[in-house]
Design goal:
Layout (H helix, E strand, L loop, with lengths): L8 E5 L4 H12 L3 E6 L6 H11 L4 E5 L5 H8 L4 E4 L6 H6 L1 H22 L5 E6 L23 H20 L4 E6 L1 E3 L11 H10 L4 E4 L5 E6 H13 L1 H4 L3 E4 L6 E3 H12 L5 E4 L8 E2 L4 H7 L7 H15 L1
Parallel strand pairs: 1-2, 1-4, 2-3, 4-5, 5-6, 6-10, 7-9, 8-12, 9-13
Antiparallel strand pairs: 9-11
Helix pairs in contact: 1-2, 1-8, 3-5, 5-6, 7-10, 7-12, 10-12
This protein binds nicotinamide-adenine-dinucleotide.
Length: about 325
Amino acid sequence: MTASTEPRRVLITGGAGFLGVNAAAHLIGRGWHATVLDNLSRPGTERNLKWLITKHPARVTFIKEDVRNATSVAEHVKDQDAILHLAAQVAVTTSLIDPSTDFDINARGTLNLLEAARKHNPEAPFVFASTNKVYGKLDHKSGPCKETQLLDFHSPYGCSKGTADQYVRDYARCFHMNTVVLRQSCIYGAHQYGTEDQGWVAHFVHSILDDRPLTIYGDGKQVRDLLDARDLSALYEIAINDIDKTRGEIYNVGGGEPNQRNLLEVIDQIGELVNKTPQFSFSDWREGDQAYYVSDISKAKAQLDWEPTIQFDRGLKDLVAWAAALG
Ligand SMILES: NC(=O)c1ccc[n+]([C@@H]2O[C@H](COP(=O)([O-])OP(=O)(O)OC[C@H]3O[C@@H](n4cnc5c(N)ncnc54)[C@H](O)[C@@H]3O)[C@@H](O)[C@H]2O)c1
């Protein structure tokens, strides 16, 4: 008998978004076929999708759909070898204006997908992009955050993603499904059309390149550990391939201490790279903003032999080059 040469198939919800196209491009490069399910609600997604399909015309299937549509979602989980659930309402600010829609997309949408998988494809590895916001306010004294940190959902976005995070974890326990949760810190990289509401590194890059003044909410000394989307894409693949190890687990994922920066440092660095003097002013702190968040990534490192390979200085240069080439 000859071995099948059919590529493995991955369903990527939110696959036209920033992390979605990065993950799709990575997995396709590793031999997968990507089914991208996205409602294209985020500005920039059409451009991302066009880029992905142009690059890999034979390896992408696009489905314009909403994760709130449980019936349709159920159809699309069938015949997939893995599910990467990235679709979300991603901004804390938007969640404060409309908590119900935020809940419907992030909590209910995730439950829709889990139920679809439970009924139609319970064996498939199911990877969920959670967030550091499930840990609430931390400060410098807390040090890098481990998975054992108490949960303290903050903001409607933190609550809806945290709810989804706990459902995904629990489906491994109660229904013996192959689910895994990645609690992501701040991710940056090409294909990120960041705005003031979400995706701040790319937002700073696009704004400084276009000579648009920035507003910094708080003192600008908020610290984050920054991770290049290419390193995260590699981890998505590991989480799927090593599902025997990762099932039921939660991992904190970010750039770790070597890649921690505050906002003002990043602004300075971008200014130097593009040879401009960034213009900015300060405003009040925003609800749900953490003064400090740095991931302790030792669990992913020890169990999965994963760690960031792209240091922030290099990743930022690549992001600037991508954004400058957009014109
Ligand atoms: N980028 C980060 O720094 C970061 C950090 C922590 C967690 N996350 C999580 O990672 C995931 C991807 O984030 P991203 O940065 O790529 O954001 P993104 O906005 O670029 O991607 C999200 C995608 O989901 C799609 N979408 C939104 N609502 C939908 C719906 N109802 N049905 C179908 N599709 C829908 C959007 O059109 C978009 O393409 C999200 O779940 C987010 O919460 C991101």
